[in-house]
Write a structure and sequence with these properties.
Layout lengths: L4 E5 L6 E5 L4 E10 L3 E7 L2 E6 L2 E4 L6 H4 L12 E2 L1 E6 L3 E7 L4 E4 L6 E14 L2 H9 L4 E3 H26 L11 H17 L3 E12 L5 H52 L3 H16 L12 H5 L3 H20 L8 H20 L5 H15 L1
Parallel strand pairs: 1-3
Antiparallel strand pairs: 2-8, 2-12, 3-6, 3-7, 4-5, 4-8, 9-11, 10-11, 11-13
Helix pairs in contact: 3-4, 6-8, 9-10
């Protein structure tokens, strides 16, 4: 006896693309409920007839005109009729996983060694043409879920993915160690290539992602080139870091010199003398350490220059010179020296004069005049 159904509605889940209602005999008063993002197709005698969009329908001849001629009108169109109804879920189904069933064999373009890689990712699919999908893929099956759909498309999916990735890496000289940087380019290009293949079966490929390229980790040859590849970048980074460190050190030392110079300049300004005056005093002090101050008076001239150094330093030096000159004037004349001693004293005094001239304490004329007097004294 035929089963009479009162309400026909979708009872599948969100991972199903097509679901066939188990009841096959419907009365013309049966209610059909089609939800949003769904479609329903009626089959009768193996033929796909009417397609219903979202809404609630009473199965009458007016709603299903294509099967009206098959109804048994001898019973006043109230007798049950035999047909099948398929629900098509048209929501976009995301995170459908895919992966290559074998690895791609090719020669790595950067280092030139043979390598095998695989790929995996996710995609989003949506039933676009319900009638085409139902006729071409489902047939007499009761349902079509994600797993079955991916298995149907596995052949050309694997062919497209493996061939494209190998060609892209070869043509663009992409290193296996830098391939993760190109996953977006892989995804966009492969999506464009796969859209027509899915469309032929009434499926819309909304998104396609290559999320991982499976590398031959653990392979001895692969690991050797991997270490060489990353070593070169590590060496460059280390050299740059060392260079930056040296620059920072040099800048620090230079800044120390600047700070010290500023401190010295502030000190001189507070004490009332210049750098040139300070250097003149240093030279005078050095000369005084090598020979008694009284010997400066033997040179005859140039000592007044030292007294004019200026400021506090000039006063100190000038006072010391004047005292030495007075002491020499009042002292008894030294005993005559032997000729050899006279020459040694002369050479020593000439050296002192030279130091004072180079330090700027006496002028060229003063140097020459004093030198002449020294020559006269030993003649």
């Amino acid at each position: 006896m035929s089963q009479i159904a009162e309400i026909i509605k979708y009872e599948g889940d969100n991972t199903t693309f097509i679901w066939k209602h188990p009841c096959e005999d419907f009365n013309t008063t049966t209610q059909l409920i089609v939800h949003e993002s769904q479609e329903a197709i009626f089959f009768m005698n193996g033929q796909a007839l009417d397609l219903f969009g979202p809404g609630r329908y009473t199965l009458e001849t007016q709603n299903i005109p294509k099967i009206g001629k098959f109804l048994n009108r001898t019973t006043g169109d109230t007798s049950p009729f035999h047909c099948e109804v398929y629900f098509i879920n048209k929501t976009e189904q995301m995170a459908i996983k895919w992966g290559t069933d074998s690895k791609v064999q090719y020669v790595e373009p950067t280092y030139g060694f043979p390598i095998s890689i695989g790929a995996s990712g996710e995609m989003s699919l949506r039933a676009e043409d319900s009638r085409k999908l139902l006729i071409k893929l489902v047939g007499t099956e009761d349902f079509l879920n994600q797993q079955k759909l991916v298995s149907f498309f596995r052949a050309f999916l694997m062919t497209r993915v493996k061939t494209y990735i190998a060609q892209y890496m070869k043509n663009n000289a992409v290193s296996i160690f830098e391939i993760d940087e190109h996953l977006t380019a892989f995804s966009e290009a492969l999506c464009g290539q796969l859209i027509p293949d899915f469309a032929d079966y009434g499926i819309a490929l909304e998104r396609f992602f290559v999320t991982n390229v499976v590398k031959p980790d653990g392979d001895r040859q692969y690991e050797k080139f991997k270490e060489l590849h990353f070593r070169q970048y590590a060496d460059i980074a280390e050299a740059k870091l060392r260079q930056q460190t040296d620059i920072i050190y040099a800048q620090t030392e230079a800044q120390k010199v600047v700070i010290d110079s500023q401190a010295q300049a502030t000190k001189r300004a507070q004490e009332g003398y210049t750098y040139a005056q300070e250097r003149g005093f240093d030279v005078a002090e050095k000369v005084a350490q090598n020979e008694a101050v009284g010997q400066f008076t033997n040179m005859g001239v140039g000592l007044g220059t030292m007294a004019g150094v200026g400021g506090a330093v000039g006063g100190v030096v000038g006072g010391a010179v004047n005292n030495a000159m007075n002491a020499v004037t009042e002292a008894p004349a030294p005993a005559p020296a032997a000729p050899a001693d006279d020459m040694a004293i002369f050479k020593s005094k000439i050296e002192k004069l030279t130091v004072m001239k180079e330090a700027g304490l006496i002028s060229e004329d003063e140097f020459n005049t004093t030198k002449a007097k020294l020559l006269d004294s030993i003649m």
